Amino acid sequence: MANYIFVHGAWHGGWCWHRVVAGLERASHRTAAPDLASLGRDRPAARAVTLALWADQIAALVAEQPEPVILVGHSRGGIVLSEVAERVPEKLRSLVYVTAYLLEDGHSVRAQAALDPESLVGPAMVIADDHQTATVREAAVRDAFYGQCSDADVVLAKSLLVPEPLAPLSTPLRLSAGRFGRVPRVYVECTADRAITLAAQRRMQDALPCARRITLASDHSPFFSRTEELTRALAGI
Fold it and tell me: Where residue 59 falls among pLDDT bands split at 50, 70, 90?
C-alpha cells in the first residue's frame, strides 16, 4: 500500500483527480486530493495567494502522514511539488510530474511558458481588470486541455474551472540540490498535449533528468482521457 497526495493544475481543483483516486483506493492505496487555496471552497482574495502559501499548505498535509508520500502534480501543480520537496524532502517517497512544470531553481512558470510558442493556453488567457487572476476563453478550453476527453468530461470541467491567481505563475522557484534534489522524480509525459507541448516537456526533462519517464498518448488531461493507463502507471511507482 502506498500513500498518494495529488496537486491539481491551474484553474482546476482536487475534483480533476476523482477517477484516479477511486482506482487507487480500490487497490487499497491511500489518497488525498486537496483544493489549493483560492481554487476550491476556500477563496481568499487573489492578492493573498502566493506560491509559498500553496507549498506550505501541501507540505503541512505531507508532514501529517504516517509514512512517506508519493506526491503527484499536474501542469502548474509541478511548481508546488518542487517547493514542497524543498520543505519536507524526508517525508517524500517520490515526485511525479504529470505533464507538469518541472523547473530549475530560479525559473518561473511564466518564463517557461514563454518558451512554448505552440501552446494554446497563452493566447487564450484573459487577464482580470485588477491583474490578480486569469481565466481561459471558453472557446479554447476543449482544444487546450481536453482534446481527447468525452463531451461529458468537458461539460463537467467547464462548470468547475475557476480563476487562477497570477502571482504564483511569476514566482521563481527556490530549490537546492540537497533538499529538492534528493527526492526521486518521475515524469509522465503526454504526447498530444496542446497546453504544455511535448517539446516543452522534453526540454524540462533534459534540464532536470528524472529517474523514470512514462509516456502516454494523451492530451493535457490524462486523468480523464487515459484514466486507467495513468492509474496503472502511478500504482507501479
Answer: very high
Measured CA distances, 22 to 31, 33, 94 (Å) = 9, 11, 21
In DSSP terms, which residues pair with 125 in a beta bridge? 136
Residues 6+ away with beta carbon under 8 Å from 150: 224
153-170 mean pLDDT: 96
CA 94 to each of CA 67, 84, 91, 129, 181: distance values in angstroms, whole numbers, following the listed order: 12, 11, 9, 39, 11
What confidence score (pLDDT) does residue 43 get?
63
Closest CA to 97 of 223, 187, 8, 170: 187
∠ CA 147-171-224, rounded to 5°: 20
Smallest Cα–Cα separation from 121: which of 133, 107, 132, 137?
137
Separation of alpha carbons 40 and 138, rounded Å: 20
Strand partners, 69: 92
Q: What is the pTM of this model?
A: 0.97
Span 183-206, mean pLDDT? 98
Cell representation of residue 5: 497526495
Delineate the domains of the chain, giving CATH numbers in brackets. 3-235 (3.40.50.1820)
